[in-house]
Amino acid sequence: MPRIVMKFGGTSMAGIERIRSVAARVKREADAGNEVLVVVSAMAGETDRLVQFCKEAAAIHDPKEYDVVVASGEQVTSGLLAMTLQNMGVKARSFMGWQLVRASGVHGNARIEDVEGGALDEALKGGMVCVIPGFQGVSEDGRVATLGRGGSDTSAVAIAAGVKADRCDIYTDVDGVYTTDPRIVPRARKLDRITFEEMLELAGVGAKVLQVRSVGLAMRERMPLRVLTAFDDLPGTEIVPELGAEDMERNAIAGIAADRNEARITLTRIADRPGTVAAVMGPLADAGIQVDMIVHAATEGAGSSDLTFTVPRASLAQAVSVLKSAGIEGDILTDDAVAKVSIVGVGIRSNPELAARMFATLAERNINLLAVSASEIKVSALVAEDEMELAVRVLHTAFGLDAPRGE
Amino acid sequence: MPRIVMKFGGTSMAGIERIRSVAARVKREADAGNEVLVVVSAMAGETDRLVQFCKEAAAIHDPKEYDVVVASGEQVTSGLLAMTLQNMGVKARSFMGWQLVRASGVHGNARIEDVEGGALDEALKGGMVCVIPGFQGVSEDGRVATLGRGGSDTSAVAIAAGVKADRCDIYTDVDGVYTTDPRIVPRARKLDRITFEEMLELAGVGAKVLQVRSVGLAMRERMPLRVLTAFDDLPGTEIVPELGAEDMERNAIAGIAADRNEARITLTRIADRPGTVAAVMGPLADAGIQVDMIVHAATEGAGSSDLTFTVPRASLAQAVSVLKSAGIEGDILTDDAVAKVSIVGVGIRSNPELAARMFATLAERNINLLAVSASEIKVSALVAEDEMELAVRVLHTAFGLDAPRGE
Predict the structure, then answer these.
(1) CATH number, residue A25
(2) Looking at the structure, do residues B137 and B34 belong to the same domain, yes or no?
(3) Which of A16, A94, A99 sits opposite B65 (nearest CB)?
(4) Binary contact (A65, B54; C-beta < 8 A)
(5) How large is the greatest C-alpha to C-alpha distance in chain A, in angstroms?
(6) Does residue B56 belong to the interface with chain A, where contact is any CB pair within 8 Å?
(7) Residues A281 and A393 in one domain
(8) What average pLDDT does range A203-226 have in this prediction?
């Protein structure tokens, strides 16, 4: 009997009417002969309300007590969904995080260590739907621990792995993963299927559908995911370890990502000698500043060169101050009106022509490349922020991603 | 080192400002060298909100899931109070009901079986204030169990007994126990001290200050209680096993109770033979209807008589229908415009003159007695409902309970 985990976000759980519609969806899967576990978020807005209480109580507060307070939101929706299911004639019960999810690490941002599958197995074999609050577990010292904001997706994947589910379905308020941000490209298309690696790159560089941590965990556990809307009957997007024969027709490029959260730093006239780049990157790493694209091209015979890299826009001021204190030679130029545009696809690995096509497409529209980086499944270009949307649109068309007119 | 339990109701916990003022009160007791445990209710209104969710989810719902939902209210206030105390420099932590309060019986209306004092002892000895959500524990099957509405008072007393506290202070929104309802007698006076038995009679017949169950438990455990307001610095009322030498000056009568929640049933012309009263009371008991005052005076030589008794007003219709199905002979007369007025005091036991004074006082004002009953520490008279307030006032004056003018 197939075993599935269904995860519902806060928008789907906001109020009894919506919980009833979630219950109907769960009933359908149970009636279809699946063993079903449901992981739920708190009602939309509830976690914010609880976090606000904590802030008012004490500006700096004990994360153990914070966990006690905010974990209550999912406790409420778990009980409500279980009783709603029972009311529809579905055998169901809730389990609390402290009854089965062992967590470790810091309170307020804990990691799931282990899920006690025994009680769940027994309940599932008895034909029971198991409802579990997302985002929480019990710490080593026996106290309530939460996983950090947005952690319900990760809970769902960890629980799916813990009970050896066949699949984990994440119901949310979008209907799947798109080839790019539909606000930039109205003809963006929903993807039927995408690999974990592609999803990580699309999520990491801007597409906010799933929490990055949950995708990483699903990839490690090889747990197939689906992203679906809770508000309609649409197939959604499958996220799988690798594409299969049935995906042969899919574009080599899964999507175009755009990220405004970048700032560029250029150090001019730094010495061309071993260790120069390390001398710059070391202090930044020590300060916890993540450096992304790095371009260092020495000019033959000049004895000095420019070093360009990007940092998160929010860390720009700190990065400059770190570099100044480190006594970096040369001038420090900064630019925060930049954006990163990336093509993402498993096809890049085997097809160098794709990067070339990207650069040619941007050049045709006179879009200047401020920096370039590439990985196995992604090629990124740093462009002026006001050219970002144009860049995304032309690349979306050039790689054949536009939806047919009228779709 | 004295060990005390402080219990705060929903009004005292309604919002962060009030929680801060509760924390200040707790800090004062801790600074004074007490070991302090605090039992808290949910924010006023929160439990109602959660109960409403349950009702909307399913008219008839699984009490185990109901418990999961409604227990969250006290979980939130426990965490918030603990972090507020820490913020004031008081060592504090919360414990959840499932970590230490073992409960038994039906979900939604469970009884506390045992409190695991070990972890609390250790924390208290380490100078830690322990904050515990009222109204909940863990059931035999390891699930969240609640004690029924208002159960936080009972939690507090059970926890106080479990940790062998010296005293349990119940902070509420009234400043103590009064000689009668101040809405009826503006010159009602706050009592400094009252016995458990007196308190049970005053609570049972109308004075709604403490949950009856918590007083019964405190009596069995001989746990001294204090009722105090959370909103002012007033001494409140002590509730003790028995009065001491210092109470010699206290009135023999502690207070006057009034209860409108009564209805009278009179069965006329029933046979004067053994078993008649039992034939009436049996079916009512089987139907779970509580019968209170019973008057059955056979008229010498008549061969038949009247039987009068009272039942809760809400059960009147059901009682009549039970009596009809049981084939009770004679007519069934009912009257729901009645009320019960009682004098309550440990002095009644040793002083029969007190009952006589009560009847004389009522007779002087031409108040008709529809029925009378008496126990060791209480004498009750059933009167017409529209004469109840007058009866309370004249008795209050006759027994010397009126506050001096200007107090």
Answers:
(1) 3.40.1160.10
(2) yes
(3) A94
(4) no
(5) 80
(6) yes
(7) yes
(8) 81
